[in-house]
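User: Please fill in residues for this 192-position structure.
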């Protein structure tokens, strides 16, 4: 039989696709008493296109992709730093030492990332707030309140509102943030 590669086993067969020089690994799976071949494929996102409104959609999609590729690494950094800080705070029992540690971390993070944050657009800042909620399961407001106090959180919420954003914004992957979720999953999978 053409296309079957030697060395096949009873449960797994490799068949060469002669048209594209690719090899697919077929697994035999039993369903309802019948043995069927099965191959795992990657998830594909299909986006439709319709006339002028389609072009506008693609421009928004491309812009959103550009902005997410820029801010997504920072959301991952926030998640990792948060885990490190929480682990260290669990170890420190003295309240004075905890405050000193948090001030040191704040100075370190500001020194390292402040210039990058200042270079972000307002749109990128809004996306970062959403992605921080996605990665940490805490809003930016809640994080500031927990580590800096309620007064500081209220101050920064006021500043954010002046610029048209909300530190209390929550990430909704199945609602208004569905497109963001699709793009972030593509970024994490290395597809874009």
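Assistant: Residues filled in for all 192 positions:
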């Amino acid at each position: 039989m053409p296309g079957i590669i030697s060395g096949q086993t009873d449960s797994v067969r490799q068949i060469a696709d002669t048209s594209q020089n690719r090899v697919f690994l077929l697994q035999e799976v039993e369903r309802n008493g019948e043995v069927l071949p099965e191959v795992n494929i990657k998830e594909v996102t299909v986006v439709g296109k319709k006339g002028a409104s389609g072009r506008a959609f693609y421009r928004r999609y491309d812009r959103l992709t550009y902005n997410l590729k820029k801010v997504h690494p920072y959301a991952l950094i926030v998640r990792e730093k948060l885990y490190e800080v929480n682990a260290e705070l669990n170890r420190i029992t003295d309240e004075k030492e905890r405050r000193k540690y948090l001030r040191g971390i704040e100075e370190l993070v500001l020194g390292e990332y402040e210039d990058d944050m200042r270079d972000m657009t307002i749109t990128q800042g809004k996306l970062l707030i959403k992605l921080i909620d996605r990665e940490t399961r805490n809003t930016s407001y809640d994080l500031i309140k927990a580590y800096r106090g309620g007064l500081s959180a209220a101050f920064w919420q006021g500043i954010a509102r002046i610029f048209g954003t909300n530190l209390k914004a929550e990430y909704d992957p199945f609602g208004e943030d569905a497109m963001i979720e699709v793009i972030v999953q593509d970024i994490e999978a290395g597809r874009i």
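For context: Residues 51-91 form the longest helix (41 residues).
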